[in-house]
Design a protein that fits this description.
The protein has 12 helices and 17 strands. The protein has an 8-stranded mixed sheet with strand order 3-4-5-2-6-7-1-8, sandwiched between helices. Helix content is 29%, strand content 22%. It is α/β, with parallel strands linked by helices and 397 residues long. It folds into 2 domains: 174 residues, Rossmann fold (3-Layer(aba) Sandwich), CATH 3.40.50; 180 residues, Nucleotidyltransferase, domain 5 (2-Layer Sandwich). The C terminus is likely disordered. A hairpin with a 6-residue loop joins β16 and β17.
């Protein structure tokens, strides 16, 4: 069966056989959608193909590429070719299978289970470790097998970039640079976010949307964070913080909880141009937000008053005050910040929030740039009580 799939021009070189295939670039380019469609198409054509979809860390099937694969199967009208099970996708006509795994869980012995596979697709490949690459590459060794990589570049020194974009890439390698401007189906909702970043922070725009390497170096404020899938424990004490915006800045809500020296961020709400009357509905996107106290930016008392009258009686103003930003940031830096992958705007801010630099010398100054900080401010507010409590305990000891 030949599927009628619209292939964007940038992806045509990736249709020809190649041992290594890669697509790197900024957000909204359609890289993942292309590889998901190609994988489904190949499995329709070859009822016995075996493929593995890989991320560096995958704690549950929910955070794999499986949902995207399922959506492509439905969109392409080929559901009758596949049996979609809880953790795998199988062929109804042969021995073909798609599985979904995290490389971090593999050992030199367990990786042998992938011998004989035809395809390995490494999604979010900027996070793949050198150890994982060293395990994967010699394992996928069947005749005519291929390893695919899709990623948003972070640093030139990341293993996938050294392998595929370095001075000596492997033979039989096809690597494409693709960005939102190459995507004929780039959605309007992402275009609005792209234009916002281009107006407000051109360096961030170049990294997030044009796929350029991050170059902030020593000016980055946060280095103590990672992206990880997790579930909140039943006894979690949630801390919520809000920051207000409208025409240019977003209105945001963030939810977090603390376990030991780890601060987990599991939900966010984010909208530019949010009318005050729409704010309760925006905040409802964060589970149980009406049940828990919220600490909000005190600069908008009228908004806080409105929220109190409209389903959020436990919202309160942040104390703020002289030195509160510096104290709050240093307190956050004393924790390991674990951010759930669904909190995309929080991840974006933590990646870009930085100190100012001397324009003449490039020296990093002890002053925070006042941008890329809306959810970071909300996180400070959320933890205000815990922070002040820890200081009070420290003074008593």
């Amino acid at each position: 069966m030949n599927l009628d799939i619209d292939t964007p021009p940038w992806a045509i070189p990736l249709l020809s056989p190649s041992r290594y295939k890669g697509a790197h670039g900024g957000r909204g380019s359609g890289k993942s959608h292309f590889f998901a469609e190609l994988l489904v198409e190949e499995h329709v054509a070859n009822k016995n193909q075996k493929s593995v979809c890989i991320r560096e860390v995958q704690k549950s099937i929910k955070m794999s590429a499986k949902l995207l694969i399922e959506n492509k199967i439905e969109q392409l009208g080929v559901g009758h070719y596949f049996e979609v099970q809880e953790t795998v996708v199988k062929s109804r006509r042969g021995s073909g299978v798609m599985i979904f795994q995290g490389m971090q869980n593999h050992t030199a012995d367990s990786i042998k289970s992938l011998e004989g596979f035809d395809r390995a697709w490494v999604e979010e490949a900027q996070s793949i470790s050198q150890r994982s690459l060293d395990l994967l590459r010699p394992t996928i060794r069947k005749s005519e097998s291929e390893i695919w990589f899709s990623w948003n570049p972070q640093y030139e020194t990341d293993p996938v970039d050294v392998l595929l974009r370095g001075e000596n890439p492997p033979d039989n390698t096809t690597v494409i640079n693709v960005n939102y401007s190459d995507n004929p189906w780039f959605p309007d909702v992402l275009r609005e976010e792209m234009e916002y970043d281009r107006r407000r922070d051109y360096d961030k725009y170049l990294h997030v949307w044009e796929g350029q390497y991050q170059t902030f170096g020593e000016a980055l404020v946060f280095r103590n964070w990672s992206i990880e899938e997790f579930d909140a424990p039943p006894d979690a004490v949630f801390r919520l913080g809000a920051d207000w915006g409208f025409a240019i800045d977003p209105t945001v809500l963030i939810r977090c909880f603390i376990i030991g020296r780890k601060l987990f961020v599991d939900y966010e709400a984010y909208k530019i141009g949010c009318e005050i009357t729409d704010t309760p509905a925006l905040f409802d996107a964060v589970p149980d937000a009406r049940r828990w106290p919220i600490t909000a930016d005190s600069a908008r008392p009228e908004t806080i008053s409105y929220m109190k009258r409209n389903g959020y009686p436990r919202i309160q103003s942040a104390a703020k005050g002289a030195g509160s930003v510096e104290d709050g940031i240093e307190w956050l830096k004393s924790f390991d910040l674990i951010v759930h992958p669904r909190c995309k705007h929080t991840i974006s801010e933590l990646s870009a929030y930085r100190y100012k630099q001397d324009k003449l010398t490039g020296a990093v100054l002890p002053i925070f740039e006042d941008k890329n900080n809306h959810l970071i401010d909300a996180l400070r507010y959320a933890c205000e009580g815990a922070r002040r409590g820890s200081y009070d305990i420290g003074r008593m000891l």
